[in-house]
Design brief:
Helices cover 18% and strands 26% of the residues. With 151 residues, it is an alpha+beta fold. The N and C termini lie far apart (70 Å). 21% of the residues are buried. One of its GO terms (molecular function) is catalytic activity. This is AL1L2 dehydrogenase.
């Protein structure tokens, strides 16, 4: 009660919080979330997961900013897949059926599950090379009739 009265009367003491020992980190900005590839796989994983979802850790692939989401450490042999050049990475990533495998400077691997392009389109990383392909929808005769009935 005494503290409330001191505040109400404008007489409460004001003690500035010391900066030493403070743990608050300011809001991360997208331009500060670029992935530095010259570090071990565990650090890459922590960086990607630490920026998941906002602002999103990113790298440049084929001249455009691509944001990485959903990483996990991969402790297995190097999987088969299609190579993908990533700007700044000492070794190309590999697009596999499970996602994009990237390598730390220690040779260990990180699996990234989702990628988001500058236009906001998000895809499973495993579909990187088939992202531009569009499958035509083929309707059976029965489905065509149903579509007409619905119209």
């Amino acid at each position: 009660v005494e503290a409330v009265h001191l505040i109400a009367d404008g007489k409460a003491p004001r003690i500035p919080q010391p900066k030493e020992g403070a743990t608050y980190e300011g809001i991360q900005k997208k331009e500060n979330a670029e992935i530095s590839w010259d570090q071990p796989a565990a650090a890459l994983h922590n960086w990607i997961r630490g920026h998941d979802k906002v602002p999103g850790a990113w790298a440049t692939i084929d001249g455009q900013v691509v944001t990485f989401y959903g990483s996990s450490l991969l402790d297995a042999s190097v999987p088969a897949g299609q190579e993908l050049a990533i700007k700044g990475a000492s070794r190309p990533g590999i697009v596999t059926k499970n996602g994009l495998v990237v390598f730390g400077n220690d040779g260990k691997m990180v699996l990234v599950r989702n990628l988001q392009f500058e236009d906001g389109k998000m895809i499973p990383a495993s579909k990187y090379f088939s992202a531009d392909e569009t499958a035509a929808l083929e309707l059976t005769e029965e489905e065509k009739k149903m579509a007409e009935d619905i119209r």
